[in-house]
Amino acid sequence: MKREIVVEPMSRVEGEGSIHIQIENGKVKKVHFNILEGTRLIETLVIGKTPEEEVSIACRICAICTLSHRYAALRALEKALGIKIHAKAHWMRTLMHLGEFLESNALHVFLLALPDFFGYPSAIAMLDKYAEEVTQGLEIKKFGNKIMRLTSGRMIHGENPTIGGFGKYLDKETLLALQKEADALLPFAERAVHLLGKLDFPSYFEEETTFMCCEPENGEYGIVGDRIRISDGEVVPVEEYQRLTNEMFSPHSSAKHCLYKGKPYTVGALARMNNLGERLNGVASTLFETYWNKRWLKNPLYNNVAQAIELVWCLQQIPFVIENILEHVDDPPLAKPTRNTGEGVGAVEAPRGTLYHHYWIKDGLVAKANLIIPTGQSLEDLEKYMRKAVEALLQQNADDETLRLQSEMIARAYDPCISCSTHLVSLERI
Questions:
Q1: What pLDDT is attached to residue 21?
Q2: For residues 148 and 170, is the Cβ–Cβ distance under 8 A?
Q3: Residue 420, pLDDT score
Q4: 28 within a domain of the structure (yes/no)
Q5: Is residue 21 part of a domain?
Q6: CB-based contact 345:358 (threshold 8 Å)
Q7: Are 186 and 148 in contact (CB under 8 A)?
Q8: Is 170 within 8 Å of 324 (Cβ atoms)?
Q9: Helix (H, G, I), strand (E, B), or coil: what is residue 29?
Q10: In a domain, 217, yes or no
Q11: Which among 338, 264, 420 has a CA at the least distance from the CA of 80?
Q12: What range does the domain containing 200 cover?
């Protein structure tokens, strides 16, 4: 007897994806998360371009995490060109990065994930009972978009962050207003953590996995670093990223998959919390201590709680970051290259996990590029947990609708950025 469950396209994710489950004689034959979108070809498009042109092209791989891509590209290209940016530029980039985290995490937590856990088909349908939670989530998202617009010049694909620094810095009045707004929104984010943290997540598909994230330079919780921390205790330079990610082709996906030491691993908010959560401070630290438990090491649904705690952390960090920006009264000029040939790897934590940009520059032009996307790194892990869930539910004689819903919830928990992940053209031989 054969059963086939197809969810196409999958709702409430960024981009076009689908789930395909095949069952024969009561046993699982296939569980795939298919990436349906076409390749972006960014790694080829940037060849022959100047570094300034490259950062404007690379960020267009995605609209949601445009600034993470721009930041990773800037870090890589500035290494290749021997550029050391001013401290004020560093703190401005941190502010723009936090804005993107607020925008992206709030979108997922309040609009994409919450409906699953409260039995609604969409966030709009939740308004009858959870109007306050949804509207507060939108306020946080709106604030994140505002920071992205102010720091980068526009909300999507902003051009203000550039090689060597920024074209324009924010004035004191604008920065102080952002501080006040961050403080005002903090209780909304705290409420989201309590709402999600108290939920009873199913445990029938749990299994420990490996987590990876950037190791912050200051030894605190953070979203940028030149080393990678792995939950097995290893900490390695970002230049060794290919040894960690081991990209490979997948016959059912236009995105590459990754394995670490031959096994699935995951990146993203849950990886950051499991690897760095004890470094949190303030309210975020209290919330982490309240809700973290060992099940976070083996259940991807906790990624939703981790994202909510990161909203609190971001809102806490913004006033501190702004104080550091305000310490520098004068706006520094763009830092200049010290060479026109070189190689550099830049890594940042995009909301969905560790993002790598690697560039080779020759005579002032991009000679080669390589991008490793967070969603691609987590796909093997995502499919592993979906398969375990389906196998366990079959033992409980679950119907197709239950299998579909639970598989979707697991996939959505990873908050996949499907647009970023596409590298290949899907080819079917007949």
A1: 93
A2: no
A3: 67
A4: no
A5: no
A6: yes
A7: no
A8: no
A9: strand
A10: yes
A11: 338
A12: 42-421
What is the pLDDT averaged over residues 60-87? 95
Residues 72 and 54 sit within 8 Å (Cβ to Cβ): no
Tell me the C-alpha distance between 165 and 279, whole Å. Answer: 29
Structural tokens at position 185: 């929104």
- Is residue 3, in this structure, part of any structural domain at all? no
pLDDT in tens, 333-345: 999 999 999 999 9
- What interhelical angle do 51-58 and 66-81 show, nearest 10? 160
Q: For position 218, which CATH number holds?
A: 1.10.645.10
- Alpha helices for 246-358 (secondary structure H): 269-276, 282-291, 303-326
What is the token pair recorded at 213?
A: 């994230």
At residue 375, what are phi and psi to the nearest 5 degrees? -60, -40
Residue linked to tokens 């999600």: 196
Q: Which of 31-35, 118-122, 133-137, 424-428 has the highest mean pLDDT?
A: 133-137
Q: Residue 364, Cα to own-chain centre: how many angstroms? A: 31
pTM above 0.85, yes or no: yes
Task: Give the residue ranges of DSSP H helices in 82-126.
Answer: 87-106, 114-117
Q: Taking a C-beta distance cutoff of 8 angstroms, is the pair 17, 10 a contact? A: yes
Distance CA 149, CA 169 (A): 12
